[in-house]
Amino acid sequence: MIQIYNVCKNYSKDSAALDQITLKIPKGDFVFITGPSGAGKSTLLKLLYAGERPNRGQILIDGRNVTRMSGRQVPFLRRKMGVVFQDFKLIAGRTIYENVAFALEVQGRKRYEISKKVYAALKNVGLEHKLNRYPLELSGGEQQRVAVARALVVDPMILIADEPTGNLDPETTIELMELFKSANARGSTVLMATHDRDLIRRYPRRIVTLENGRLTEDREV
Ligand SMILES: Nc1ncnc2c1ncn2[C@@H]1O[C@H](COP(=O)(O)OP(=O)(O)OP(=O)(O)O)[C@@H](O)[C@H]1O
């Protein structure tokens, strides 16, 4: 369960990126965060993985107060999360295998367990045959599928995706949505920021709309 109470975030004194946001997201939900450019979508997601801190308000994830977490506790919070970005954010100097294995290595998992899980995660996105390649040798759609494998390899409690389909063609977008749907069916709570109205129509889910940092709509379709 994610509980967001009265959260405000200002990057500068005169404008609020988020203004008094209150939101409850039960375990297993699939939520689209939508709204115009600059509405605060990315900021809201960043607060959840402690990439930014709110100026006011509280965020509880599974009963733990993210807003009060020390820097040392943040990596433990992130172990429960998979994050996917529009620009993939793969490490260029590491192979596909190494990119996906990284999160498990940080968790101190055993070598054979890592290789089993990485292979399964890459197979799930149809890229097990490219595990020795480097990110820049792959197409954009393939790179995003690696990023999804990296996010899902930890069996995340929460999958956070910030405009993940922004650089993808329509077919790859559908493949990615199907991967998110099955992760959700396996129990991950999914939060996905998107501008894409067609996508939201195609995959009817809970829709949270932000405008100018305010929550203007929260509906289930
Ligand atoms: N690091 C930052 N420093 C200063 N201002 C920022 C920073 N990040 C975001 N902002 C501002 O906060 C507001 C919300 O930005 P945010 O990126 O959360 O919006 P968004 O809805 O995700 O937009 P987009 O759809 O264009 O990505 C905007 O006015 C933006 O300019």
From TrEMBL:
Major subcellular site: membrane
Domain of life: Bacteria
Molecular functions per Gene Ontology: ATP binding; ATP hydrolysis activity; transmembrane transporter activity
Subcellular location: Cell membrane
Keyword match Cell division: yes
Assigned keywords, A-Z: ATP-binding, Cell cycle, Cell division, Cell membrane, Membrane, Nucleotide-binding
SMART domains: AAA
Recorded coiled-coil stretches: none
One GO term (biological process): cell division
ABC transporter domain sequence ranges: 2-221
Topological category with respect to the lipid bilayer: Peripheral membrane protein
InterPro entries: AAA+_ATPase, ABC_transporter-like_ATP-bd, ABC_transporter-like_CS, ABC_transpr_LolD-like, Cell_div_FtsE, P-loop_NTPase
Annotated PANTHER family: CELL DIVISION ATP-BINDING PROTEIN FTSE, IMPORT ATP-BINDING PROTEIN
Biological role stated in the UniProt entry: Part of the ABC transporter FtsEX involved in cellular division. Important for assembly or stability of the septal ring.
Record's subunit section: Homodimer. Forms a membrane-associated complex with FtsX.
Name of the protein in question: Cell division ATP-binding protein FtsE
